[in-house]
Amino acid sequence: MRIVTDEQPDRVHGRLLESVHLSGYTFERACDELKWLLRQERWKSVTPGFEDIDDFLATVDLSEFRAVREVRKDLVRQLAAVRAGQRATARLLGVSEGTVRLDKRADNYAPNPAETDAPSPEHLETLTIAAQDYAPPATSSITPYYADGGITIYHGDCRELLPQLPRGLMVTDPPYNVGYHYDQYHDALEPADYDALLGAALHMPLVVIHYPEAIFPLARRFCRSPDEIVAWVYHANTPKQWRAVAWFGVAPDLSLDSQAYRNPEDKRVRELIADGRQARLYDWWTIEQVKNVSQEKTEHPCQIPLALMLRILRVTPYASGPVIDPFCGSGTTLLAAQSLGRPAIGIDSSEEYCELAANRLQQRTLALEA
């Protein structure tokens, strides 16, 4: 959810109050909105007009959230700065801090008209790619490797780039730490280092593809169970015959897609098929891997099938921001988002893979224009 500088503080406050009761709304996202209200004492213009920071904070209960340590520290620092400002004013005037608060309550605070006007249409949330610009803030120094039609690719370390980018729905197939031969990334980290990598890169709302045993550490990190898990199964001569697709902080709607019936020889099912019907989507998805002989195969060693990413995005109704893949590799997540008209951001540490993803996106664009 993007917070724009001219949005009404009372709208952000109302959204914050509502969001703390929603399943999957992380402490980090709640803090982002709260910190925005604290900047330049914008909380004072929140209806009905909180002149005391403690009165304002009493309206927001974040006690249920288990905070990321650094996020909590940052918020505490900002709150301390607000209170320090009140104490400094009290010392300057030679009065108690309580008197300063009472004096501020007595003032008729007149908010800036720019803060109370209705937001302009370009700030409205939408799934349409052209309606929003998901470039980094003007203060950011990062430059996109590729940007066209609402799809942006950044070359670099996602742990360094993500804090400078807008938040959104994270959909990713991260490195599995099983020794794949990537262009640059070393896929055999020590367990603690790998856990730290995923901890720094992944945030909710998240859809992640991984081996099932890897979902448990993520659940411990997020201090919550997945909202949904489906099995992605495939035919392969490998020890592991399936992977998990797990949703954290967002729930899929499996009614938004369908699949072939499992028992097509049944008389009743044959009639349904003859009518053009398909079965509702189960939690067991049979989608073949991208193999060396697959038509969509690229130079990437661990490419996810486009059909899988298309299904994930189709059943995940999340519109508050772009689709974000911090390990975008060959760009399959971006290609799926482009196909469905959703804005997306991809990051990869390999320039070769960034170029590969950009070429796939450009080829699809040219094919549509032909």
Q: Would you kindly provide a written description of the structure presented here, covering whatever features stand out?
A:
The longest helix is centred in the N-terminal third of the chain and has 25 residues, at 69-93. α1 (9-19) runs antiparallel to α2, α2 (27-38) packs parallel to α4 and α4 crosses α5 (97-106). Helix content is 37%, strand content 12%. The strands form two sheets. Strands 1-2-11-10-3-4-6-5-9 form a nine-stranded mixed β-sheet, with helices on both faces. Strands 7-8 form a two-stranded antiparallel ribbon. The chain has 13 helices and eleven strands. It has helices at 9-19, 27-38, 53-57, 69-93, 97-106, 113-116, 158-161, 191-201, 212-222, 267-274, 306-314, 332-339, 351-369; strands spanning 146-148, 151-155, 169-172, 206-210, 228-233, 242-248, 258-259, 279-280, 284-286, 323-325, 344-348. The chain has 370 residues and is an alpha/beta fold. β1 (146-148) and β2 (151-155) form a beta hairpin. The protein folds into two domains: 9-119, no CATH class; 129-369, Rossmann fold, CATH 3.40.50.
